[in-house]
Amino acid sequence: MAWIYLSIAIVFEIAFALGTNATQGFTRLWPSVFTLMAAAGGIFTLSLALRTLDVGVGYTIWTGVGSIGTVLLGALIYKERITAAKLVSFAAIIGGIVLLKLSAGV
């Protein structure tokens, strides 16, 4: 169940990051409400996942996969460029996540 909670937390994390851009400095009401709700949902579901997972593993996966998802969706939604350096960074993040998961024995 912890991995399901973590997956939901990652979706909230991506929504939070993308929503923050849409708030225009928290000057737009509904994007701001959406962003704050996503942040709260992400922290809540992450806390549920961390009841079972090691904090180092859970938090790192949450931020790492959330970062990758944010960059990919940022490219689709906001037309941001994905460069070779970003692709190399993705590979490093994914490699780190796999090693963390293996080291946690879960």
UniProtKB/TrEMBL annotation:
Lineage top rank: taxon: Bacteria
Gene Ontology CC annotation, any one: plasma membrane
UniProt key word Transport: yes
Transmembrane regions: 29-50, 57-78, 84-104
Gene3D superfamilies documented for this protein: 1.10.3730.20
Topology relative to the membrane: Multi-pass membrane protein
Compartments reported by the entry: Cell membrane
SUPFAM superfamilies per record: Multidrug resistance efflux transporter EmrE (SSF103481)
InterPro entries recorded: EmrE-like (IPR037185), Small_drug/metabolite_transptr (IPR000390), Small_multidrug_res (IPR045324)
Any GO molecular function: transmembrane transporter activity
Record keywords, A-Z: Cell membrane, Membrane, Transmembrane, Transmembrane helix, Transport
Keyword match Iron: no
Main location as per UniProt: membrane
Family the entry assigns: Belongs to the drug/metabolite transporter (DMT) superfamily. Small multidrug resistance (SMR) (TC 2.A.7.1) family.
Protein known as: Quaternary ammonium compound-resistance protein SugE
Taxonomy of the source species: Bacteria, Bacillati, Actinomycetota, Actinomycetes, Streptosporangiales
